[in-house]
Amino acid sequence: MAQATPGSNYTVQPGDTLSSIAHQAYGDGNKWQTIYDANKQVIGSDPNLIHPGQVLYIPVLSPTPGSNYTVQPGDTLYSIAQRAYGDGNKWQIIYDANKQVIGSDPNLIRPGEVLYIPPIAPPPPPQPKTCKVTAAQGLNIRAAPTSQSALITSYPIGTVLNYVEVVIGENVAGNPHWGHSEQGHYYWMGGTDHPNG
Hints:
Layout: E1 8-11, H1 18-26, H2 32-38, H3 40-43, E2 55-58, E3 67-70, H4 77-85, H5 91-97, H6 99-102, E4 114-117, E5 129-132, E6 139-142, E7 151-155, E8 160-163, E9 165-172, E10 175-180, E11 186-188
Antiparallel strand pairs: 1-2, 3-4, 5-8, 6-7, 9-10, 10-11
């Protein structure tokens, strides 16, 4: 027998009610209104009248990037973005993807509207910066931002090194700044032409 699963279609079976489908999908028959709101065009005006063979979309209750979400009473684009992305200020992303559903006013969304919650691309990795070894004796590359950690290698004066971030580590000669390289190694920034990063 078919199982009602949020985020997918479900074919109505003999004896089904919206309440029984909601119980299957969400473990709570009282959430039948969510299924009805998402399928009014299929079901019609009477939520008590569904027919075997009808294909209903079972909406996801919480907004999930990359899926559809049915607007619930009290929802705003801000609150949906907060739940989907952890940042309500990203509401514009949802609005831009759903202007044809929402219309020209992003403050006017209605329960039952089905919105696509687009995925957000992860931020690009930090671009490496470079610095040049200026210490006359060269510079040691370490496993951690401390002169006591494992020595990986040493580079002579004039060598160009990369770093993706500057971290605070052991304070050497009054400077606690250490470069963290793309390779995951550390070196003391005080021995370069960019002592503070």
